[in-house]
Fold this protein.
Amino acid sequence: MIPLRDEHRLPRVPWATLLIIAACAFFFFLDLGADPVERARHIHRFGLVPRLQARLFQETWSALPAFSLDACAALAGPFFTSIFLHGGIEHLVGNVWFLLVFGHNVEYRFGHAGFLAFFLACGAASGVIHAVLSLDDPVLRQIGFRLVEIEGGSMPCIGASGAIAGVLGAYFVLFPRGRVLTWFPPFFVFLLPAVAFLAIWFVLQYVGLAGEAEMFTGVAYGAHVGGFLAGMTLAVTAMAVSPRRFAARGVAAV
């Protein structure tokens, strides 16, 4: 199930969306020139490592009220830097495509700067949820999630898919009447209601999370679920705070 385009034609260029795509592409191709060992170190340093972040959180918490800026940067930084790293060209292209299809609409509602802040917030939120679900917590296990622990929770998580899941969640809230031209490989193309497409996508992510697929596929389904819910929450909050700004504003259907 691959989205080809949505039905909205917007009156301005989505500069923030294009900037995010350019940043992801830049860091991906920058890493291509590195040898495998150096690239692995780079991913481990700037990717999100749940067990490491949990240890840093414990150290920072135990040091309060004293704290250092370096410790705070080490704790928070990977939740943002990991967004712009990708493991392969398929990973990058898949994320970029979903962002191109859905990002410009959400950016139109939030504005350029607001969309950048929204995107980073969703990426950080999805990273936090992924990190929590990657740690062996019996309390979380009781609420229906099968927690995944890969190599002691030390496998780095990279990619923009959690943040893009937030964009999908916001689209679900802000464009409930939108439609998405969808390709079902190899032959079928349908114009689906956006809420149906995104609901199916979300259910597949939850099934992947609950079914332990993360251990076998390497896909961070928890980040996808968390990012989608974060995007929905931020979009609903934005509509409540500024209903005029987030009402439909002259978007014409093709």
Observations:
- The longest helix spans residues 89-110.
- The two ends are 22 Å apart (CA to CA).
- Residues 31 and 46 are 12 Å apart (CA to CA).
